[in-house]
């Protein structure tokens, strides 16, 4: 089992400034899954109850001179502490930039190693960062779990395949910050959040307790997938009534998720996505949020980067 | 009740004013309030162990179509987004005490303090003013109650506490004219109030309100009932008028009245009516 690659300058930027801060909010430990063509950061794909997140990069988006080999179709997976990874990347960057402003190309190598740590009898696996500065080289070892067995990798791949189902209707959230401010306030009201999404482009988030109902509605959002025109007779009704009628008509779905999970999913804005879409998976299986990244300076989707989260549904609700 | 359309519509142009007013009368986490709605506006009453009561008067602003059932708060950020809230009502477990505040005599026993919350917080409860700090280092209000003494000659207000040590702060009307805006008293009275209740009458007033505050009036009524009145602006902050003096005109509907009533401690009857 071998893995060795050089992080590109763009790759370092993507990880250090955008993705690692966002993924750190998803959970301390994630699975790093490396294949011949892709690098993936996966949260909660093996255990069902938390928010699942899948960040996938084509190898070119992060690495140069990417070499991987294993007896398991060149697939390697292990668990890693995101905050340790973040620290290692961050200090590597500071070493690279400390001496002159030259390119970081081929200066930041990462590889999988087994080492005998001090006071240990068994060698332990590490992801090693080797940074070449102007006159010095710094080596940082980030401890990782024992690499996954063939059966575990298959299990992870199955979880990944199952996390790819696409909602029939997706609505684009115009302002993630605004929504996050609102949800941060809602966290004080209760734990369960109702999310309704309609084919008309309406997104309704609402919290209800025995004493209070607080919600926000966004209308006329951009819809991807199945869409419909909002009935004219509904126009002057309240948000809640319109949503209820849309669900009855089969034009909307509603699910209940944890406010904490929803707030976490909004933390993904740290990865600086260009768009965010929310949708409810078929049969109300989960609430999915898909982030879209553009090729810098264009409105074209950057297909080498993808990030999406799946929020477990706490109550099937009305579907 | 129809499923669509509330029975009462009350539009507010500045939600922050209401938030400020509600903050001012909130002194603990779980606090029930009784809301009275009428054609004149909204009155909100909160109470604490039948010794402290606060009332917020939000006067009628625009339109009240008919009588209550529940009310909906709704703010419109843009045409296509809105935030709404629905508060379910319940029957109050206790009936709020409706104390008929009566003057203690022919001459009202009252004084008006400029910027009371600030005064109370900094001078009286946590003395931090330079003069006081020089005199007494690390001053803390002793005991659990504070005695308020009003006397006509010389016209002055005294705050007095006894416990592990004594603390007495005198405000002479003619000396502290920048602090005491008005004073009315024809005989000496003295009542003792729970420190925590007195503090509740001022401690939660948001700083934005303190800035606009034109003075808070304290009146001692019959039996020693203390009334503390604050005015809170619920209007959108506008360009300040250059000639606003102490009697400056503000539209009455843009003001929320906040009143606190504090019952005196019963054992105290030194020089009363």
Automatic annotation (TrEMBL), chain A:
Localisation: Nucleus
Coarse class of the protein's main subcellular location: nucleus
One GO BP annotation of this record: telomere maintenance
InterPro entries associated with the record: HUS1 (IPR016580), HUS1/Mec3 (IPR007150)
Tree of life domain: Eukaryota
Keywords in alphabetical order: Nucleus
One GO cellular component term: nucleolus
Family designation: Belongs to the HUS1 family.
This protein's name: Checkpoint protein
From TrEMBL, chain B:
Superkingdom classification of source: Eukaryota
Gene Ontology CC: one annotated term: checkpoint clamp complex
Gene3D superfamilies (UniProt xref): 3.70.10.10
Compartmental location: Nucleus
GO biological process, one term: DNA repair
Keywords of this entry: DNA damage, DNA repair, Nucleus
Family from the record: Belongs to the rad1 family.
PANTHER family, sorted: CELL CYCLE CHECKPOINT PROTEIN RAD1 (PTHR10870:SF0)
Protein name, per record: Uncharacterized protein
Species annotation: Quercus suber (Cork oak)
Taxonomic classification: Eukaryota, Viridiplantae, Streptophyta, Embryophyta, Tracheophyta
């Amino acid at each position: 089992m071998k893995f060795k690659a050089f992080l590109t300058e763009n790759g370092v930027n993507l990880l250090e400034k955008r993705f690692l801060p966002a993924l750190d909010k998803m959970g301390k430990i994630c699975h790093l899954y490396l294949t011949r063509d892709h690098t993936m950061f996966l949260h909660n794909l093996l255990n069902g109850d938390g928010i699942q997140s899948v960040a996938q990069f084509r190898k070119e988006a992060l690495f140069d001179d990417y070499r991987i080999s294993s007896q398991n179709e060149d697939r390697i997976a292990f668990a890693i502490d995101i905050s340790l990874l973040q620290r290692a990347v961050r200090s590597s960057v500071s070493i690279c930039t400390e001496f002159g402003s030259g390119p970081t190309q081929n200066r930041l190598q990462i590889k999988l190693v087994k080492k005998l740590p001090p006071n240990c009898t068994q060698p332990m696996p590490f992801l090693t960062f080797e940074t070449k500065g102007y006159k010095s080289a710094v080596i940082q070892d980030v401890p990782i779990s024992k690499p996954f067995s063939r059966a575990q990798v298959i299990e992870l791949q199955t979880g990944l395949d199952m996390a790819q189902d696409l909602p029939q209707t997706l609505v684009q959230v115009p302002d993630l910050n605004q929504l996050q401010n609102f949800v941060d306030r809602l966290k004080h009201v209760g734990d369960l959040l109702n999310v309704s999404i309609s084919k008309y482009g309406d997104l309704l988030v609402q919290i209800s307790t025995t004493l209070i109902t607080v919600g926000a509605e966004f209308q006329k959002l951009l819809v991807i997938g199945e869409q419909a025109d909002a009935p004219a007779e509904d126009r002057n009704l309240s948000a809640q009534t319109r949503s209820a009628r849309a669900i009855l008509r089969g034009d909307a779905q509603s699910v209940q998720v944890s406010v904490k999970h929803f707030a976490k999913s909004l933390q993904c804005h740290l990865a600086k996505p260009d768009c965010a879409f929310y949708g409810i998976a078929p049969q109300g299986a989960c609430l999915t949020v898909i982030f879209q990244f553009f090729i810098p300076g264009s409105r074209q989707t950057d297909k080498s980067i993808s990030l999406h989260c799946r929020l477990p549904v706490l109550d099937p609700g009305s579907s | 009740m129809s499923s669509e359309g509330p029975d009462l519509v009350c539009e507010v142009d500045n939600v922050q004013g209401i938030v400020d007013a509600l903050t001012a009368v909130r002194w603990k986490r779980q606090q029930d309030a009784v809301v009275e709605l009428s054609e004149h506006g909204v009155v909100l009453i909160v109470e604490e162990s039948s010794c402290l009561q606060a009332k917020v008067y939000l006067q009628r602003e625009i339109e009240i179509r008919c009588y209550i059932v529940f009310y909906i708060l709704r703010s419109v950020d843009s045409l296509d987004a809105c935030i709404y809230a629905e508060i379910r009502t319940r029957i109050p477990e206790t009936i709020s005490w409706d104390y008929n505040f009566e003057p203690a005599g022919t001459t009202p026993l009252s004084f008006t303090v400029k910027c009371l919350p600030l005064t109370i917080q900094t001078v009286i409860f946590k003395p931090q003013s330079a003069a006081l700090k020089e005199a007494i280092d690390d001053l803390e209000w002793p005991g659990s109650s504070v005695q308020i003494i009003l006397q006509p000659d010389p016209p002055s207000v005294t705050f007095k506490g006894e416990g592990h040590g004594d603390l007495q702060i005198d405000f002479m009307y003619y000396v502290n004219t920048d602090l005491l805006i008005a004073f009315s008293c024809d005989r000496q009275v003295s009542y003792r109030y729970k420190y925590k209740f007195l503090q509740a009458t001022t401690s939660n007033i948001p700083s934005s309100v303190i800035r606009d505050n034109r003075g808070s009036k304290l009146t001692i009524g019959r039996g020693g009932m203390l009334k503390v009145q604050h005015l809170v602006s619920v209007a959108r902050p506008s360009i300040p008028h250059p000639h606003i003096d102490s009697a400056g005109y503000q539209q009455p509907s843009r003001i929320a009245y906040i009143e606190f009533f504090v019952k005196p401690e019963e054992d105290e009857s030194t020089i009363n009516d």
